[in-house]
Design a protein that fits this description.
By secondary structure, this protein is mainly α. It has a single domain, classed as Up-down Bundle (Amino acid/polyamine transporter I), CATH 1.20.1740.10. Helix content is about 70%, strand content about 0%. The protein has 20 helices and two strands. Helix 1 packs across helix 7, helix 3 crosses helix 17 and helix 4 runs antiparallel to helix 5. It is globular, with a radius of gyration of 22 Å. The chain starts with 12 loop residues before the first helix and ends with a helix. The C terminus is likely disordered. It is a multi-pass membrane protein. Its main location: membrane. Pfam families: AA_permease_2.
């Protein structure tokens, strides 16, 4: 790919799969957004929306996997955009990188915010006089992000080990939760309950409310580009990276559907549970009792913390690679690697700081979580869509890697790009009515600010010096510079 190697190649096939599977994290994704789905479409959208969106995400993942096989680098999306563009390579690469950056930061921030919310729910269950506040949620989120940054500061072997543990935590945790929700309650909803529809978004148009409910599944299925970003640290990356992407999506889709069904059928008092501070927690309490609910909530919190850790790992690799090509302010800082741990330590702390900034509106906004989620979904999926679109424009000129879609590549890519455009527009729209200063979806502002800065910077100076991914020389010259 034209780079001297700085990162150690210690990720095996399972490790590469594990990071995307952990970032997708069905337990964290479903539990953190289930309450929003109860208001925006109800069981009908939670179940059938999960199935439909999962299929669309598989199309996106397959197209991304084909590109990952051809360009297995930490730069991932922005690198491949620069290589696939016929003209204006620097611009395509520049904007893809910035979209990827803001989406990654949104994912890290949203996962930390969700974990903080559920930690407070657990504390309130344990000590009834504890008062849950937005300010405390922001404070706990900041502590979580700082601890995850510390973990990412150490060796890649530690992160790989924690990701392996997280996979089993998710599998075993999901089995325990599903069995408890299936066996313990003395009452379940009827089979036809999956068709029950609710629209409590405040909007009179039921179709619009239902479409907003798709955010539940879309938010869960973000971050599978983690396998792509870890390519430079993965053995046989041209095959293992795309396999990691596809396996993480497919396994998450199947297992997540089972968990979603278990939660939906365990609902008892729909109105009371949907209006509670943490709807899935209230479902656990009503169906299983306080003691069992506390135990399962610890599993959920652990899954969220693992998810945030993997999110930050992927985020830092994107920052490292983008800075390596001089595309971020202070690039020489962010692409430096610790000589002791061989990890991009400064990039880790930049990721943590940016995530903390993004959660600050949660101090006063009660729609902060869904806004951060929208930043994550829209930023990432637009970054996913750009190289897929450019690959479609190349047509037969695209030089595929050993893992490819063959003659189906164009069809799969077209479906992927169409879904990305439609979903991105949807999730930038208002999500709650009436629209006030505290309920406003500030995702368009957050994305707009980043893109405005990127645009001003591009036309001011960057277009003169940034021409896309840098090449350090021929393969033999790069090998002579190899640092490991």
């Amino acid at each position: 790919m034209g780079y001297p190697r700085k990162l150690t190649r210690r990720f095996r096939a399972f490790d590469n799969f594990a990071i995307s599977f952990t970032i997708i994290n069905i337990i964290a994704g479903i539990f953190s957004s289930f309450g929003f789905g109860m208001a925006a479409g109800g069981p009908r959208i939670l179940i059938f929306g999960w199935i439909g969106v999962s299929i669309m995400v598989l199309f996106v993942g397959a197209s991304m996997g084909e590109i990952a096989s051809a360009y297995p680098t930490s730069g991932a999306l922005y690198f491949s955009a620069g290589k696939l563009a016929k003209r204006h390579r620097g611009a395509w690469s520049w904007y893809t990188g910035w979209l990827n950056f803001v989406g990654q930061v949104g994912g890290t921030a949203a996962t930390g915010y969700a974990a903080a919310t559920f930690i407070q729910a657990f504390i309130a269950m344990q000590w009834t006089d504890y008062e849950v506040t937005a300010q405390r949620t922001v404070g706990i989120t900041a502590v979580i992000l700082l601890l995850q940054a510390l973990a990412n500061t150490y060796t890649v072997q530690l992160i790989a080990l924690l990701n392996r543990i997280s996979v089993w935590w998710l599998f075993i945790g999901m089995v325990v939760i599903v069995i408890c929700l299936t066996v313990i309650p003395d009452h379940h909803q009827s089979v036809s309950f999956v068709t029950h529809f609710e629209n409590n978004t405040g909007f009179s148009n039921g179709i619009y409310g239902a479409m907003l409910g798709l955010l539940v599944t879309s938010w869960t299925f973000t971050g599978f580009d983690g396998s792509f970003h870890m390519s430079e640290e993965t053995v046989q990356a041209t095959v293992n990276a795309p396999k990691g992407i596809m396996r993480s999506i497919a396994y998450s889709a199947g297992i997540g559907l089972i968990l979603m069904l278990a939660l939906v059928y365990a609902i008892r008092d729909y109105a009371a549970e949907a209006s509670s501070a943490a709807p899935p927690v209230q479902i656990l309490i009503d169906a299983l009792g306080m003691g069992t609910a506390k135990l399962l909530l610890l599993i959920v919190i652990g899954a969220m913390l693992f998810c945030g850790l993997a999110n930050m790992t992927s985020n830092t690799r994107q920052i490292f690679a983008f800075s390596r090509d001089g595309a971020m302010p202070g690039s020489r800082w962010w692409h430096s690697v610790s000589p002791r741990t061989r990890t991009p330590v400064k990039a880790v702390w930049l990721a943590a700081a940016c995530s903390i900034i993004l959660v600050l509106p949660g101090w006063w906004s009660h729609t902060a979580f869904t806004a951060i989620v929208s930043v994550n979904v829209v930023g990432l999926f637009l970054a996913y869509g750009v190289p897929i679109f450019l690959r479609l424009r190349l047509g037969d000129e695209f030089e595929s890697g050993p893992w490819n879609l063959g003659r189906y590549g164009k069809v799969v890519g077209t479906v992927a790009v169409t879904w990305i455009v439609l979903s991105s527009v949807l999730f930038m729209l208002p999500q709650v009515s009436p629209i006030t200063t505290t309920s406003f979806n500030y995702a368009p502002i957050a994305l707009g600010v980043v893109l405005l800065i990127a645009t001003v910077w591009w036309f001011a100076t960057a277009r003169k010096r940034f021409q896309g991914p840098v090449s350090y020389g021929r393969p033999d010259e790069v090998a002579a510079m190899d640092l490991i």
